[in-house]
Design a protein that fits this description.
About 40% of the residues lie in helices and about 15% in strands. By secondary structure, the chain is an alpha+beta fold. Among the domains are: about 80 residues, Penicillin-binding protein 1b fold (2-Layer Sandwich); about 190 residues, Penicillin binding protein transpeptidase fold (Orthogonal Bundle), CATH 1.10.3810. The chain has a five-stranded mixed beta sheet with strand order 11-10-1-14-24, with helices on one face. It has a five-stranded antiparallel beta sheet with strand order 16-15-28-27-26, sandwiched between helices. A hairpin with a 4-residue loop joins strand 5 and strand 6. Helix 17 packs across helix 22. It starts with 14 loop residues before the first helix and ends in a 12-residue tail after the last strand.
C-alpha cells in the first residue's frame, strides 16, 4: 500500500507556552499598563485636588486676618481738636502736656513739623498738617503767649501776624479694627519713613523686592552658616515669611509650620503689593513686652521707648528698633543695654555700608547713648475711654460701615480734663489708705451729651475691667432726685409737709419690711425739701407707697431706659436698682438739662478715608420731662451742696453754686456722688470688687474725690433756668411755710404759682 504523506508541523513549542495556549484568555501586557496609568492619573488628580483645597484653606486664613490690605489703612480714633484763642483758660504747662501727649518732642532750635520749643514765658510749636472735616490745614509755626493762666495772644511765626484762633490737630488715641477689636497704633503705606524701610530691608531681607516670597538662596546661605557654626546663627526666612508666621501661625517650630509659612508667603506675594506686605510687617512685628502685654509695630514701640512718632526718630533710634527685630528679648535696651548697644551699632554699620547714612551721621549716631525711657509708659494711657468708644461704635454704626478701611473716628475726649480727673482721683484715693478700693468716674457735658473724660479703674491706664461701663452696683440715694421729680408731678411741692416716722410694709410673701433712715433716727415733721437735702429715707418710702411715687418712678425710669426689672419692689425707693457709672450719668444728664434728654456719647463724627461722613442714627436732644418740675429738683440738689449731705462743697468752694447728690448703699459697700456745675456733669463711684464694706458714705468718700477733681479742673457755678410757671418764695425748710429773706434758715425755693403755700412761718 502506498504510504500516507507525512503531516507538516511547525517547530515544537516549549511546554510552558503550550500550557499557556491551552488555558483560558488573559490580558496582555498592554492592558495591565493602561490600568496602572489610570490608577496613577487618579492619584495625581486626587493629590492636585487636595493641594488646591490646601491652597484655598491657606487663602481663607489670609482673608480672615489680612483683610485685603486693611493693615495698611488703619481706622484711627482722635481726641477733640484743641482750639487756641486769646482769652482761653490754658497754661503753658497744659499746652506742653498736650503737645507731648501727641509726641511733639521739645527742641532748642526752630521747630520742624511735629516739634515745639519754649521761648521764655511763651511756647512755639510747628503743627503737623491735618485734614479737618471742613478744610485741610497745612503745617504752621505758631507762637503762643500766656498771662494769668490764660492765652494772651497767638502769632504766626513765619509772617508775624496775629491769629484770632488756631486749631491744633487732634491727638491720636489709638487705632481701631472692628472685626478683631484690636487697639494698635499703625502706619499707612504712605506714612512709612523711607529710611526705616531701607534700613529694615538692608538688615533683614536685602532681596525683598526681587524674590517671590521665598528665597532659596537665602535658605542655602543660612543652612551653610548654621552648619559651620554648629548651631542656629542665621535664619533663611524672608520678610514675607516672617509676616506669614507672625500673622497666621504659632511660634512652634516644625516642618509642617515651615511648609505652611512658605506657601502663605507665596500667596501673599501673589495677592498683595510689596509695599502693602512690608507695611503690614512694620505694623505687626513684635518688638517689646510690657508686663503681660505684647507691643507690636514700630509706631507703638517708637512712642513707648522714645516718646516720639516714628517719623521723628533720629538715626540711632531707628537703628535700635530695627536691630531689636532679630531678638526683642535679647536686645531689649532696658533689660540688656550692652547687647542692645552692640546690636544698634551693627545696624548703623550696615546703614553706612549701604549708603543710607554718611560718615558724619554714622560717627554721631554711634557715639550717642541709647536714649530710651527709664520706664515704659502705658500701652494706651486711656483704655477705659477707648473701650467705651468701641462699644458705642458697634451700637451706632452698621458692620458694613465699620468694615471700611481708613475710618477717622472723632471723639469728645479732652486730654486736659482727663489729666485733671486722674490727678484728682489719685489725690482723693490717697486719703483713704485702702489699696483695694476701686473707682469709676464719668465726666460729660450735659448740654450736648459729650463724654469728655472717663476712668474705669483706680489704676487709670490699666486695660482691664472697665467699671465705669460694666460694673453694676446699687445706687442708693441717687434714686431720690428722679423720685422727687415723680412726686412733684402730683400735688406736692418742695414746701409740702412730710413726716419722718416708722413705715411698715406687708410684702407678698407675708414678711413685714421695716426700712430705716441711714442715721437710724426719726426727725419728725418737715418740708419735702428738708427731707431731700438730708436724704431721709422714711418720708420718701411713705410717699412712694401711699402717694403714687413708686408707680411714677418706675414709669420715669422706663422713659430713660433704666428700669432694670419687670417686677418692681418698694425697695427700689431706696435705690436697690443697680446701674453703672455711665448709666447714672445718663440719668442725671436729663435732670441737669432741664428735662431734655440727650444720649451720652463719646463719638462726634466718623468719616471715611475720603473725608466723607458716615451715616448714623441721629443723636438729638428732645424734651422728655417737664422743665418747671425739673428746675425744682435742681434747686433741691443745690440745697444738698449748701446745707445737706454735701455741704462740704459749700465749705470748700464758698459762693460758687453746685448741684449734687450723695449715695450710700447698705453697710457702706458703695459710695456715690453726682454733681454738676455749668455744663459739666461728673459721677464718682467708690467700692470694692468683692462687695465688702468700704466704711465710706457718699459724703465721706466719693464726694471728697469729686471735689478734688473739680478743684483741679476749675468750673463755673451752676445756674438755674427761669420758668414763668414758677414763683420764687422764701420758705421755712422745717415747716414749709412762707417766710422772709431775713429770717433764719429761710431758703428761696421755686413753687408752682397755683400751689404757693397759704400758711406762714414765724420769723426767727
Amino acid at each position: 500500500m502506498p504510504r500516507k504523506p507525512a503531516r507538516k508541523t511547525s517547530a515544537k513549542r516549549p511546554a510552558a507556552v503550550r500550557r499557556a495556549a491551552r488555558r483560558p484568555g488573559k490580558p496582555g501586557p498592554s492592558a495591565a499598563g493602561r490600568r496602572k496609568w489610570r490608577y496613577a492619573g487618579a492619584l495625581i488628580i486626587s493629590l492636585l485636588l487636595l493641594f488646591a483645597a490646601y491652597l484655598v484653606y491657606l487663602n481663607q486664613i489670609i482673608d480672615s486676618r489680612f483683610e485685603g490690605g486693611a493693615w495698611a489703612l488703619p481706622s484711627r480714633v482722635y481726641a477733640r481738636a484743641l482750639e487756641l484763642y486769646p482769652g482761653l483758660k490754658l497754661t503753658r504747662e497744659q499746652l506742653t502736656y498736650e503737645l507731648e501727649l501727641a509726641s511733639y518732642p521739645r527742641v532748642d532750635r526752630q521747630p520742624m513739623p511735629g516739634e515745639y520749643r519754649q521761648l521764655g514765658a511763651s511756647l512755639e510749636f510747628n503743627s503737623r498738617p491735618f485734614e479737618f472735616a471742613d478744610q485741610p490745614q497745612a503745617a504752621r509755626l505758631v507762637q503762643v503767649f500766656f498771662e494769668a493762666g490764660q492765652v494772651a495772644g497767638l502769632v504766626d511765626s513765619q509772617n508775624g501776624n496775629d491769629l484770632s484762633v488756631f486749631r491744633l490737630p487732634p491727638l491720636i488715641l489709638g487705632s481701631y479694627y472692628p472685626q478683631s477689636g484690636e487697639d494698635r497704633l499703625l502706619l499707612a503705606e504712605d506714612e512709612v519713613p523711607e529710611r526705616l524701610l531701607a534700613t529694615l530691608i538692608a538688615v533683614e531681607d536685602r532681596a525683598f523686592f526681587t524674590h517671590s516670597g521665598v528665597s532659596p538662596m537665602a535658605i542655602l546661605r543660612a543652612l551653610w552658616a548654621n552648619l559651620k557654626a554648629g548651631k542656629t546663627v542665621q535664619g533663611g526666612s524672608t520678610l514675607t515669611q516672617q509676616l506669614a508666621k507672625n500673622l497666621f501661625l504659632t511660634p512652634q517650630k516644625s516642618l509642617l509650620r515651615k511648609i505652611n509659612e512658605a506657601f502663605l508667603a507665596l500667596l501673599l506675594e501673589l495677592r498683595f503689593s510689596k509695599q502693602a506686605i512690608v507695611t503690614a510687617y512694620i505694623n505687626e512685628v513684635f518688638l517689646l513686652q510690657q508686663n503681660r502685654i505684647a507691643i507690636h509695630g514700630f509706631a507703638r514701640a517708637s512712642r513707648m521707648l522714645f516718646g516720639r512718632a516714628v517719623d521723628r526718630l533720629e538715626v540711632q533710634h531707628l537703628a535700635l528698633l530695627v536691630g531689636m527685630v532679630k531678638g526683642p528679648s535679647r536686645y531689649n535696651p532696658q533689660t540688656a543695654p550692652e547687647l542692645a548697644l552692640e546690636r544698634r551699632n551693627l545696624v548703623l554699620k550696615i546703614m553706612f555700608e549701604r549708603d543710607l547714612i554718611d560718615q558724619q551721621a554714622f560717627d554721631r549716631a554711634r557715639a550717642a547713648p541709647l536714649g530710651v525711657a527709664g520706664q515704659l509708659p502705658s500701652v494706651n494711657p486711656f483704655p477705659a475711654y477707648l473701650d467705651l468708644v468701641k462699644h458705642q461704635l458697634q451700637l451706632s454704626y452698621s458692620g458694613a460701615e465699620l468694615a471700611r478701611r481708613g475710618l477717622r473716628i472723632f471723639t469728645a475726649f479732652d486730654p486736659l480734663l482727663q489729666q485733671n480727673l486722674e490727678l484728682g482721683l489719685a489725690r482723693g484715693l490717697a486719703r483713704f489708705k485702702q489699696p483695694e478700693l476701686q473707682a469709676a468716674v464719668v465726666i460729660a457735658d450735659y448740654l450736648n451729651g459729650d463724654i469728655q473724660a472717663l476712668v474705669g479703674d483706680r489704676v487709670t491706664d490699666y486695660p482691664g475691667f472697665n467699671r465705669a461701663l460694666m460694673a453694676q452696683r446699687p445706687i442708693g440715694s441717687l434714686i431720690k432726685p428722679l423720685l422727687l421729680y415723680s412726686l412733684l408731678q402730683g400735688e406736692l411741692t418742695l414746701a409740702s409737709e412730710v413726716r419722718d416716722e416708722p413705715v411698715r410694709i406687708q410684702q407678698s410673701n407675708g414678711e413685714v419690711w421695716e426700712p430705716r433712715n441711714y442715721d437710724r433716727k426719726l426727725h419728725g415733721t418737715m418740708s419735702l425739701y428738708e427731707a431731700f437735702i438730708h436724704s431721709y429715707n422714711l418720708p420718701f418710702i411713705w410717699l412712694g407707697v401711699n402717694a403714687g411715687g413708686l408707680e411714677a418712678l418706675t414709669q420715669n425710669l422706663a422713659r430713660i431706659h433704666l428700669l432694670k426689672h419687670e417686677v418692681v419692689f418698694p425697695s427700689i425707693l431706696l435705690g436697690t436698682t443697680e446701674m453703672s457709672a455711665y448709666e447714672v450719668a445718663q440719668m442725671f444728664q436729663v435732670i441737669a438739662n432741664d428735662g431734655f434728654f440727650t444720649p451720652l456719647t463719646t463719638i462726634r463724627s466718623v468719616t471715611d478715608q475720603h473725608n466723607q461722613a458716615l451715616s448714623r442714627i441721629p443723636l438729638e436732644s428732645f424734651k422728655l420731662f417737664d422743665q418747671a418740675t425739673m428746675i425744682q429738683v435742681q434747686r433741691a440738689m443745690v440745697g444738698v451742696s449748701e446745707m445737706g449731705t454735701a455741704r462740704y462743697l459749700a465749705q470748700r468752694f464758698g459762693e460758687r453754686s453746685l448741684a449734687g447728690k450723695t449715695g450710700t448703699t447698705d453697710d457702706a459697700r458703695d459710695s456715690w456722688f453726682v454733681g454738676f456745675s455749668d455744663r459739666l456733669l461728673s459721677v464718682v463711684w467708690l467700692g470694692r470688687d468683692d462687695n465688702t464694706p468700704i466704711r465710706l458714705t457718699g459724703s465721706s468718700g466719693a464726694l471728697r474725690v469729686w471735689a478734688d477733681i473739680m478743684e483741679l479742673q476749675g468750673f463755673e457755678p451752676f445756674k438755674l433756668s427761669r420758668d414763668e410757671s414758677l414763683a420764687w418764695r422764701y420758705i421755712d425748710p422745717q415747716t414749709g411755710g412762707i417766710s422772709q429773706q431775713g429770717c433764719a434758715n429761710s431758703v428761696l425755693l421755686p413753687i408752682p404759682r397755683d400751689r404757693i403755700p397759704k400758711r406762714h412761718s414765724r420769723c426767727q
